Amino acid sequence: MKILITGANGMLGSTLTEQLLKTNHKILGTGKGILRCNHLIFNEISSYATLDILNPNDIEDTVAKFQPDAIIHAAAMTQVDDCEQNKELCSRINTVASKQLMAAAQKCGASFYYISTDFVFSGEDGPYKETDKTGPINFYGKSKLQTEEALKESGMNWCIIRTVLLYGKTDHINRSNFIYWVRDNLLAKKPIKVVDDQIRTPTYIPDLVAGIIKAVELQARGIYHISGSDTLTPYEMSIQVADYLNLDKQLISPVDASTFTQVGRRPQKTGFYINKAIQDLGYQPTEFNKALKIIFE
Ligand SMILES: NC(=O)c1ccc[n+]([C@@H]2O[C@H](COP(=O)([O-])OP(=O)(O)OC[C@H]3O[C@@H](n4cnc5c(N)ncnc54)[C@H](OP(=O)(O)O)[C@@H]3O)[C@@H](O)[C@H]2O)c1
Q1: How confident is the model at residue 83, as a pLDDT?
Q2: Cα–Cα distance between 161 and 145 in angstroms, integer?
Q3: Which residues of the chain carry a pLDDT beneath 70?
Protein backbone atom coordinates (compact mmCIF):
# COMPACT_ATOMS: atom_id res chain seq x y z
CA MET A 1 0.00 0.00 0.00
CA LYS A 2 1.02 3.62 -0.45
CA ILE A 3 0.58 5.43 2.85
CA LEU A 4 0.92 9.18 3.48
CA ILE A 5 1.43 10.34 7.08
CA THR A 6 1.01 13.91 8.34
CA GLY A 7 2.80 15.12 11.48
CA ALA A 8 5.81 12.82 10.96
CA ASN A 9 7.97 14.98 13.26
CA GLY A 10 5.45 14.69 16.09
CA MET A 11 5.31 12.43 19.13
CA LEU A 12 2.95 9.92 17.54
CA GLY A 13 3.81 10.55 13.88
CA SER A 14 7.54 9.90 14.32
CA THR A 15 7.05 6.46 15.90
CA LEU A 16 4.31 5.66 13.41
CA THR A 17 6.61 6.54 10.51
CA GLU A 18 9.48 4.59 12.06
CA GLN A 19 7.35 1.44 12.34
CA LEU A 20 5.78 1.80 8.90
CA LEU A 21 9.27 2.06 7.38
CA LYS A 22 9.86 -1.49 8.64
CA THR A 23 6.93 -2.80 6.58
CA ASN A 24 6.67 -3.37 2.83
CA HIS A 25 4.40 -0.37 2.37
CA LYS A 26 5.54 2.64 0.40
CA ILE A 27 5.62 5.55 2.84
CA LEU A 28 5.53 9.29 2.39
CA GLY A 29 6.17 10.91 5.78
CA THR A 30 5.28 14.59 5.83
CA GLY A 31 5.81 17.37 8.35
CA LYS A 32 5.59 21.13 8.64
CA GLY A 33 9.28 21.81 8.09
CA ILE A 34 12.38 19.78 7.43
CA LEU A 35 12.67 16.26 8.80
CA ARG A 36 13.78 16.64 12.43
CA CYS A 37 13.82 12.96 13.37
CA ASN A 38 17.29 11.66 12.61
CA HIS A 39 16.29 8.14 13.62
CA LEU A 40 13.96 7.89 10.60
CA ILE A 41 15.87 6.13 7.86
CA PHE A 42 13.94 6.30 4.62
CA ASN A 43 14.53 3.36 2.28
CA GLU A 44 14.58 3.20 -1.53
CA ILE A 45 10.78 3.22 -1.86
CA SER A 46 9.90 5.68 0.91
CA SER A 47 10.63 9.34 1.50
CA TYR A 48 9.92 12.48 3.49
CA ALA A 49 8.37 15.68 2.13
CA THR A 50 7.71 19.04 3.72
CA LEU A 51 3.97 19.67 3.89
CA ASP A 52 2.52 22.57 5.81
CA ILE A 53 -1.16 21.67 5.95
CA LEU A 54 -2.02 25.36 6.20
CA ASN A 55 -1.10 25.59 2.53
CA PRO A 56 -3.98 24.09 0.49
CA ASN A 57 -1.97 24.06 -2.76
CA ASP A 58 0.77 22.02 -1.08
CA ILE A 59 -1.81 19.56 0.20
CA GLU A 60 -3.31 19.18 -3.26
CA ASP A 61 0.07 18.80 -5.01
CA THR A 62 1.60 16.40 -2.47
CA VAL A 63 -1.42 14.10 -2.40
CA ALA A 64 -1.97 14.18 -6.17
CA LYS A 65 1.70 13.38 -6.82
CA PHE A 66 1.96 10.51 -4.32
CA GLN A 67 -1.50 9.01 -5.01
CA PRO A 68 -1.77 7.31 -1.60
CA ASP A 69 -4.09 4.39 -0.86
CA ALA A 70 -4.35 5.65 2.72
CA ILE A 71 -3.67 8.89 4.56
CA ILE A 72 -2.99 8.81 8.29
CA HIS A 73 -3.67 12.30 9.57
CA ALA A 74 -1.71 12.76 12.82
CA ALA A 75 -0.75 16.44 12.41
CA ALA A 76 -2.65 18.81 14.66
CA MET A 77 -2.38 21.77 16.98
CA THR A 78 -2.30 19.74 20.18
CA GLN A 79 -1.61 22.08 23.11
CA VAL A 80 -5.00 22.59 24.76
CA ASP A 81 -4.23 26.03 26.22
CA ASP A 82 -2.72 27.30 22.94
CA CYS A 83 -5.88 26.18 21.14
CA GLU A 84 -8.05 28.03 23.66
CA GLN A 85 -5.98 31.21 23.34
CA ASN A 86 -5.68 31.09 19.56
CA LYS A 87 -8.96 29.65 18.37
CA GLU A 88 -8.62 30.94 14.83
CA LEU A 89 -5.29 29.18 14.24
CA CYS A 90 -6.54 26.05 15.99
CA SER A 91 -9.57 25.99 13.71
CA ARG A 92 -7.44 26.50 10.61
CA ILE A 93 -5.07 23.64 11.49
CA ASN A 94 -7.38 21.12 13.14
CA THR A 95 -10.53 21.63 11.11
CA VAL A 96 -10.10 23.64 7.90
CA ALA A 97 -6.78 22.02 6.86
CA SER A 98 -8.08 18.58 7.83
CA LYS A 99 -11.05 19.09 5.52
CA GLN A 100 -8.72 20.15 2.70
CA LEU A 101 -6.68 17.01 3.23
CA MET A 102 -9.89 14.97 3.17
CA ALA A 103 -10.90 16.56 -0.13
CA ALA A 104 -7.49 15.73 -1.65
CA ALA A 105 -7.80 12.15 -0.36
CA GLN A 106 -11.26 11.83 -1.83
CA LYS A 107 -10.00 12.99 -5.22
CA CYS A 108 -7.52 10.15 -5.46
CA GLY A 109 -9.69 7.56 -3.70
CA ALA A 110 -7.49 7.29 -0.60
CA SER A 111 -8.93 6.06 2.69
CA PHE A 112 -8.62 8.54 5.55
CA TYR A 113 -7.43 7.55 9.04
CA TYR A 114 -8.00 10.41 11.43
CA ILE A 115 -6.25 10.47 14.79
CA SER A 116 -8.64 11.98 17.32
CA THR A 117 -8.91 12.36 21.05
CA ASP A 118 -10.76 11.58 24.29
CA PHE A 119 -11.20 15.37 24.56
CA VAL A 120 -14.21 15.11 22.20
CA PHE A 121 -16.02 13.92 25.36
CA SER A 122 -17.16 16.02 28.34
CA GLY A 123 -15.45 13.88 30.99
CA GLU A 124 -18.61 13.75 33.09
CA ASP A 125 -19.32 10.09 32.48
CA GLY A 126 -16.22 8.27 31.24
CA PRO A 127 -14.86 5.76 30.44
CA TYR A 128 -16.28 5.97 26.95
CA LYS A 129 -17.12 3.58 24.16
CA GLU A 130 -17.18 4.48 20.47
CA THR A 131 -20.94 5.05 20.39
CA ASP A 132 -21.10 7.37 23.40
CA LYS A 133 -22.33 10.92 23.05
CA THR A 134 -19.61 13.52 22.47
CA GLY A 135 -19.58 16.94 24.16
CA PRO A 136 -16.18 18.68 24.19
CA ILE A 137 -15.55 21.28 26.90
CA ASN A 138 -12.58 23.04 25.31
CA PHE A 139 -11.78 24.45 21.89
CA TYR A 140 -9.19 21.77 21.06
CA GLY A 141 -11.84 19.06 21.55
CA LYS A 142 -14.37 21.03 19.52
CA SER A 143 -11.95 21.49 16.62
CA LYS A 144 -11.17 17.75 16.55
CA LEU A 145 -14.86 16.83 16.76
CA GLN A 146 -15.70 19.10 13.82
CA THR A 147 -13.31 17.11 11.65
CA GLU A 148 -14.82 13.85 12.89
CA GLU A 149 -18.26 15.13 11.89
CA ALA A 150 -17.08 16.26 8.48
CA LEU A 151 -15.58 12.82 7.88
CA LYS A 152 -18.81 11.07 8.77
CA GLU A 153 -20.66 13.18 6.23
CA SER A 154 -17.98 12.94 3.54
CA GLY A 155 -19.03 9.71 1.83
CA MET A 156 -15.36 8.69 1.65
CA ASN A 157 -13.70 5.67 3.28
CA TRP A 158 -12.89 6.86 6.77
CA CYS A 159 -11.73 5.58 10.10
CA ILE A 160 -11.50 7.69 13.25
CA ILE A 161 -9.00 6.44 15.82
CA ARG A 162 -9.43 8.19 19.15
CA THR A 163 -6.74 7.93 21.77
CA VAL A 164 -5.91 9.09 25.32
CA LEU A 165 -2.86 10.69 27.02
CA LEU A 166 0.14 9.39 25.07
CA TYR A 167 3.37 8.36 26.75
CA GLY A 168 6.49 6.54 25.62
CA LYS A 169 10.10 7.05 24.64
CA THR A 170 10.42 10.47 23.07
CA ASP A 171 14.06 11.40 23.63
CA HIS A 172 14.75 10.78 19.90
CA ILE A 173 12.45 13.68 19.00
CA ASN A 174 13.88 15.85 21.74
CA ARG A 175 10.50 16.17 23.41
CA SER A 176 9.31 15.44 26.90
CA ASN A 177 6.12 13.78 27.98
CA PHE A 178 4.49 13.30 31.35
CA ILE A 179 6.58 10.40 32.61
CA TYR A 180 9.89 12.11 31.70
CA TRP A 181 8.67 15.28 33.39
CA VAL A 182 8.05 13.29 36.57
CA ARG A 183 11.40 11.49 36.35
CA ASP A 184 13.39 14.65 35.66
CA ASN A 185 11.83 16.61 38.53
CA LEU A 186 12.31 13.77 41.00
CA LEU A 187 15.90 13.27 39.86
CA ALA A 188 16.47 16.98 40.47
CA LYS A 189 14.78 16.55 43.89
CA LYS A 190 12.15 19.13 42.96
CA PRO A 191 8.70 18.78 44.59
CA ILE A 192 5.85 18.43 42.10
CA LYS A 193 2.09 18.81 42.31
CA VAL A 194 0.20 16.26 40.25
CA VAL A 195 -3.51 16.12 39.49
CA ASP A 196 -5.38 13.34 41.22
CA ASP A 197 -8.95 14.11 40.17
CA GLN A 198 -8.64 13.41 36.45
CA ILE A 199 -9.04 9.87 35.24
CA ARG A 200 -7.46 8.53 32.07
CA THR A 201 -6.44 5.28 30.37
CA PRO A 202 -2.92 6.38 29.30
CA THR A 203 -1.69 5.01 25.99
CA TYR A 204 1.75 3.56 25.32
CA ILE A 205 2.71 5.05 21.93
CA PRO A 206 4.01 1.80 20.32
CA ASP A 207 0.68 0.09 21.19
CA LEU A 208 -1.27 2.84 19.45
CA VAL A 209 1.08 2.69 16.46
CA ALA A 210 0.53 -1.08 16.14
CA GLY A 211 -3.24 -0.51 16.34
CA ILE A 212 -3.18 2.18 13.65
CA ILE A 213 -1.09 0.04 11.28
CA LYS A 214 -3.46 -2.90 11.81
CA ALA A 215 -6.46 -0.65 11.12
CA VAL A 216 -4.90 0.53 7.85
CA GLU A 217 -3.90 -2.96 6.72
CA LEU A 218 -7.34 -4.38 7.55
CA GLN A 219 -8.99 -1.34 5.96
CA ALA A 220 -10.97 -0.79 9.16
CA ARG A 221 -13.86 1.66 8.92
CA GLY A 222 -15.79 3.61 11.55
CA ILE A 223 -14.66 4.74 14.99
CA TYR A 224 -12.10 2.92 17.16
CA HIS A 225 -11.03 3.69 20.70
CA ILE A 226 -7.37 2.79 21.22
CA SER A 227 -5.79 3.41 24.62
CA GLY A 228 -4.16 1.59 27.49
CA SER A 229 -6.18 -0.71 29.75
CA ASP A 230 -5.09 0.71 33.13
CA THR A 231 -7.35 3.38 34.60
CA LEU A 232 -5.11 5.89 36.33
CA THR A 233 -4.94 9.49 37.49
CA PRO A 234 -1.80 11.45 36.58
CA TYR A 235 -0.88 11.28 40.31
CA GLU A 236 -1.11 7.49 40.28
CA MET A 237 1.02 7.42 37.13
CA SER A 238 3.66 9.59 38.80
CA ILE A 239 3.78 7.34 41.88
CA GLN A 240 4.36 4.31 39.63
CA VAL A 241 7.18 6.17 37.87
CA ALA A 242 8.76 7.03 41.24
CA ASP A 243 8.39 3.45 42.48
CA TYR A 244 9.84 1.94 39.33
CA LEU A 245 12.85 4.28 39.30
CA ASN A 246 13.26 4.12 43.05
CA LEU A 247 12.90 7.89 43.40
CA ASP A 248 11.50 9.83 46.33
CA LYS A 249 7.71 9.79 46.02
CA GLN A 250 7.40 12.11 49.03
CA LEU A 251 8.23 14.86 46.55
CA ILE A 252 4.90 14.25 44.78
CA SER A 253 1.77 15.94 46.14
CA PRO A 254 -1.69 15.00 44.87
CA VAL A 255 -3.80 18.05 43.99
CA ASP A 256 -7.15 18.86 42.39
CA ALA A 257 -7.13 20.25 38.86
CA SER A 258 -8.59 23.47 40.31
CA THR A 259 -5.14 24.13 41.84
CA PHE A 260 -3.92 25.13 38.40
CA THR A 261 -5.25 28.02 36.39
CA GLN A 262 -5.41 26.61 32.89
CA VAL A 263 -7.20 28.49 30.14
CA GLY A 264 -8.43 25.30 28.49
CA ARG A 265 -10.69 23.17 30.69
CA ARG A 266 -9.75 19.47 30.89
CA PRO A 267 -12.41 16.76 31.00
CA GLN A 268 -12.41 15.13 34.43
CA LYS A 269 -13.05 11.47 33.78
CA THR A 270 -12.32 10.07 30.33
CA GLY A 271 -10.59 6.80 29.47
CA PHE A 272 -11.86 4.27 26.96
CA TYR A 273 -13.46 0.90 26.61
CA ILE A 274 -11.24 -0.77 24.02
CA ASN A 275 -13.06 -4.06 23.36
CA LYS A 276 -13.82 -3.18 19.74
CA ALA A 277 -10.12 -2.62 18.93
CA ILE A 278 -9.18 -5.82 20.75
CA GLN A 279 -11.76 -7.82 18.80
CA ASP A 280 -11.43 -6.30 15.32
CA LEU A 281 -7.75 -5.31 15.25
CA GLY A 282 -6.21 -7.83 17.64
CA TYR A 283 -5.13 -4.80 19.66
CA GLN A 284 -3.06 -5.67 22.75
CA PRO A 285 -2.32 -2.87 25.21
CA THR A 286 0.82 -3.03 27.34
CA GLU A 287 0.20 -2.64 31.07
CA PHE A 288 1.46 0.68 32.44
CA ASN A 289 4.07 -0.87 34.76
CA LYS A 290 5.38 -3.11 31.96
CA ALA A 291 5.63 -0.14 29.58
CA LEU A 292 7.67 1.77 32.21
CA LYS A 293 10.09 -1.14 32.29
CA ILE A 294 10.54 -1.01 28.50
CA ILE A 295 10.93 2.78 28.49
CA PHE A 296 13.44 3.06 31.32
CA GLU A 297 15.41 -0.14 30.96
N1 LIG B 1 -0.50 13.59 22.91
C2 LIG B 1 -1.62 13.09 23.41
O3 LIG B 1 -1.69 12.76 24.62
C4 LIG B 1 -2.82 12.87 22.52
C5 LIG B 1 -4.01 12.38 23.11
C6 LIG B 1 -5.12 12.18 22.29
C7 LIG B 1 -5.05 12.44 20.93
N8 LIG B 1 -3.89 12.92 20.38
C9 LIG B 1 -3.87 13.19 18.92
O10 LIG B 1 -2.81 12.46 18.37
C11 LIG B 1 -2.26 13.17 17.25
C12 LIG B 1 -0.76 13.28 17.41
O13 LIG B 1 -0.49 14.00 18.60
P14 LIG B 1 0.98 14.19 19.17
O15 LIG B 1 0.91 14.08 20.64
O16 LIG B 1 1.93 13.35 18.40
O17 LIG B 1 1.19 15.72 18.85
P18 LIG B 1 2.49 16.52 18.47
O19 LIG B 1 3.72 15.86 19.00
O20 LIG B 1 2.20 17.93 18.83
O21 LIG B 1 2.51 16.35 16.89
C22 LIG B 1 1.65 17.05 16.05
C23 LIG B 1 2.41 17.35 14.80
O24 LIG B 1 1.57 18.15 13.96
C25 LIG B 1 2.41 19.01 13.27
N26 LIG B 1 1.75 20.19 12.73
C27 LIG B 1 1.22 21.24 13.41
N28 LIG B 1 0.81 22.18 12.54
C29 LIG B 1 1.11 21.71 11.31
C30 LIG B 1 0.98 22.25 10.00
N31 LIG B 1 0.47 23.45 9.79
N32 LIG B 1 1.40 21.50 8.95
C33 LIG B 1 1.94 20.27 9.15
N34 LIG B 1 2.12 19.73 10.36
C35 LIG B 1 1.70 20.45 11.42
C36 LIG B 1 3.46 19.44 14.28
O37 LIG B 1 4.57 19.90 13.57
P38 LIG B 1 5.81 20.64 14.28
O39 LIG B 1 6.39 19.58 15.19
O40 LIG B 1 6.70 21.00 13.17
O41 LIG B 1 5.22 21.78 15.04
C42 LIG B 1 3.69 18.16 15.05
O43 LIG B 1 4.81 17.46 14.55
C44 LIG B 1 -2.98 14.51 17.21
O45 LIG B 1 -3.96 14.47 16.20
C46 LIG B 1 -3.63 14.64 18.57
O47 LIG B 1 -4.82 15.37 18.48
C48 LIG B 1 -2.77 13.14 21.15
Answers
A1: 98
A2: 12
A3: none
Centre of ligand 1 from the C-alpha of residue 103, in Å: 20
Question: In this predicted structure, what is the pLDDT of residue 62?
Answer: 98
Ligand 1 pocket test, candidate residues 32, 151, 167, most atoms within 8 A of CB: 32
Residues 235 and 147 placed together within one structural domain of the fold = no
Helix (H) or strand (E) holding 167: strand 166-167
Residues 158, 16, single domain; the answer is yes
pTM of the model: 0.98
pLDDT at 170: 84
Report the CATH number that the domain containing residue 263 is assigned in CATH. Answer: 3.90.25.10
Q: Number of folded domains in the chain?
A: 2
Buried/exposed code over 32-59 (b: 16+ C-beta within 10 A; e: otherwise): beebebeebeeeeebebbebebeeeebb
Provide the residue range defining the domain that includes 43.
2-167+203-229+272-281
DSSP assigned state of 201 = -
Residues 153-195 have pLDDT tens digits of 999 999 999 999 999 998 777 778 899 999 999 999 999 999 9
Our answer on whether the CB atom of 101 is closer than 6 Å to any ligand 1 atom is: no
**Ligand 1, atom 1: closest residue by C-alpha:** 166
Claim to verify: residue 14 and residue 111 sit in the same structural domain: yes
Is the C-beta atom of 174 inside 6 A of ligand 1? no
**For residue 44, what pLDDT is reported?**
86
